[in-house]
Amino acid sequence: MEIQDILKQLRIKHGLTQEEMAERAMVTRQAVSRWENGETQPNTDTLMILSRAFDVSINTLLGAPRTLFCQCCGMPLTDDGLISREPDGRFNEDYCKWCYVDGAFAYATREELLEFLLAHMPNADGASEEARRSAFDAQLAQLKHWKQA
């Protein structure tokens, strides 16, 4: 779905006129009209305001142009309900709601996350613990959170 359709759908879903949506987004009614006609798109600051006002991620507002993955555990973030939030309620599109909670990471070390994954992830092919640990560790090493550590 295109951004113009998403914005119009959100406005209608919330029973708002273009004028009311403009007030929430701190723009003019004409700006909302131009968005819905596909003439322009909201800037980054306005996308952040819309994200908070309608409780959707910026990725969703943009029509989900990119596949998000938790940069701590690697889980696909296929729904806004899986995305973590900052303490002020803003979405943090880098992490899942289990790895990053209330502004803090749930796993202090990569080893701690590895232990959790080994205990909770299915082992359908019957791989040894050593093989599984190595595979998980290789995947985690590619993620932003663990590259920084």
Task: Label this structure with key terms.
47% helix, 149 residues, 8 helices, mainly alpha
Entry summary:
This protein is 47% helix and 9% strand. It has helices at 3-13, 18-25, 29-36, 44-54, 58-61, 110-120, 129-140, 144-148, and strands spanning 83-85, 91-96, 100-101, 104-105.
Helix content: 40-55%
Kindly name the structural category. mainly alpha
Uncertain runs: none
What pattern of helices and strands is seen along the backbone?
HHHHHEEEEHHH
Number of β-strand runs: 4
The gyration radius over C-alpha positions equals 19 Å
Mean pLDDT: 93
Measured between the Cα atoms of the first and last residue, the distance is 37 Å
Largest β-sheet summary: 2 strands, antiparallel
The backbone outline, from C-alpha atoms, is elongated
Number of helices: 8
Across the major sheet, the strand order is 1-2
Description:
With 149 residues, the protein is mainly alpha-helical. It is 47% helix and 9% strand. The protein contains eight helices and four strands; from the N terminus they run αααααββββααα. The protein has helices at 3-13, 18-25, 29-36, 44-54, 58-61, 110-120, 129-140, 144-148; strands at residues 83-85, 91-96, 100-101, 104-105. The strands form two sheets. The chain has a two-stranded antiparallel sheet. Strand 1 and strand 2 (91-96) form a beta hairpin. Helix 2 crosses helix 3 (29-36) and helix 6 (110-120) packs across helix 7. It is elongated, with a radius of gyration of 19 Å. The protein starts with a helix and ends with a helix. The model has no long low-confidence stretch (mean pLDDT 93).
